[in-house]
Amino acid sequence: MNLVKAVALVIVGAILGYSFSLTVKVNNDDRFICDDVIIENTALPNKISDFNVQSNTNDKEVTLQIDCPAVTSNLKAIVADDDVQTQEYLDLVDDYQVLERKYAKSRSKISSLNHQLNELDGSETTDEEMEDLAPEPFKSFLSSFRGKTRNDIYDFHKQDDDLDWGYNTQNYISDFIQTHYNGSSVELISVICKQPYCEILVIEKEEDAWKNIMKEIRQQPWWKFSSTTSSSNNMSTYIFLSM
To answer: Is the N end or the C end of the chain the one with fewer CB atoms within 10 Å?
Structure first.
């Protein structure tokens, strides 16, 4: 009779004890369930102090004495905290992108205003001198420029060839255009580069082909130009770039 009571007490004690703690032996790649919460064993070592967990480890297995309510409560708190931090990060990314777009618009506006001011400057270079710098149908483009832009283009053509930066950069540009998937849809008439300027003359055979090329060429690591002056008529485009 005493033996039966002892066995019954052991069983009752085990059942009651389960509600407060749980002893689990798991392999290093396994997981266990604590109060319906699935817990990855590999996630526990860095969090043991938070979970009221006592552990004994060896090379093959991990023995954990776990306070289930504490583990569950702490895991839920960690998940909630991670969610808050993730949302804060996403909010900061959105704010940064908004500021970046505003900054780009401001730079574009400043560049446009500077260009307008430069156009007001005088120039001694005649229309005939400008038109002599390029073949048809680009002559009228050059003679339409005024002020500092006209002077910069004219001086650019009077400079000696740039066999270092200029040679490399014009090769980058021409190679990119000719090997682009829209390359066969444009005719590259000329590319000349002399630091810190480049001039591109191109005739577009298909609509939007040149637009697609320019969109992608600006993403290249060697593309360092900060200012673009262009003029076009029908399918012909003249571009003058500066760093």
So the answer is: N
